[in-house]
Amino acid sequence: MTNELPLSTVLIVDDSPSNIRVMAAVLQERYRVKTATSGQQCLDMALRHKPDLILLDIEMPGISGYETCRELKDMSETRDIPVIFVTGRDNIEDEEMGLRIGAVDYITKPIRPVILSARVDTHVTLKRQQDRLLQLAMHDQLTGLYNRHYMLEMVDQRLSRARRHNTPLSLLIVDLDHFKQINDTHGHIVGDQILEQVSALLNQQCRTEDTVTRFGGEEFLILMEPCSLNQAHYKAEVMRHQISELMPSGIEVTVSIGAAEFSDSDTNFNDMLKRADDALYRAKANGRNQTELSHATVVV
């Protein structure tokens, strides 16, 4: 097995067992191969396994390959998975149709192993490079947490979902106390180590449904859904006490936290963010190392 593309998964979708066997034989030494025999099965497996690439036949019983591709591209969970049509249709109109609805390539049958292998290698490599660039663009390089750009990109979708399903959503702003003084006294390398250790604790203490972001400098945002203000307050206090006992790099560190719950009177994320920030300001003004809540516009 080569090292260039470790553990990449290719989903082969074809209603012909012989075609599946041929393609699997070409690819199985370098990829994890999954198979499906219908469009619906392809959609289900794409959601479940998140393959790195899909080889998709056009003529299948039930949902056609074209319609399957359209549905893959309509779903946020699968739209970035590259699709290569592998089909007996060899006219230019069909190829144009396939590329227009979102496929990255079009291979005609009978299957030529060298061509199949080369096209799959190319598009899996491109997908991995794209994923790496996205990872770098959406994550803070020091802490590994999501960054400000990611939070601002995804938050409207989370707010819309909370409104649609009438579920509570809360925001915490966590700010390290006297962090400039720590940097001035101990140096920026120690300051970075403290940020890394506090980030790891925040990430460990949050659920998979929560989004932990380094929003800037020594400030972290935690978006929690579903989570009421009372639940967020409890979680904030747990994390605040744990951080006070953490002693990263042998230095006593505390945090101040502002919390707000999304309200019908909030027109957008900035409204909730401002209320949480105002609560954080009160926590700082009242002596730091505490959590303050924003009740002002919460609809009970």
UniProtKB/TrEMBL annotation:
Q: What keywords were assigned to this record?
A: Phosphoprotein
Every copy of the Response regulatory domain together lies at 9-124
UniProt modified residues of type 4-aspartylphosphate: 57
EC number(s) stated in the UniProt entry for this protein: 2.7.7.65
Protein's UniProt keywords contain Phosphoprotein: yes
Query: Pfam families this protein is in?
Result: GGDEF, Response_reg
SUPFAM superfamilies in the record:
CheY-like, Nucleotide cyclase
PANTHER family xref list:
DIGUANYLATE CYCLASE, REGULATORY COMPONENTS OF SENSORY TRANSDUCTION SYSTEM
Protein name in the entry: diguanylate cyclase
List the source organism: Thalassolituus maritimus
Q: What is the lineage of its organism?
A: Bacteria, Pseudomonadati, Pseudomonadota, Gammaproteobacteria, Oceanospirillales
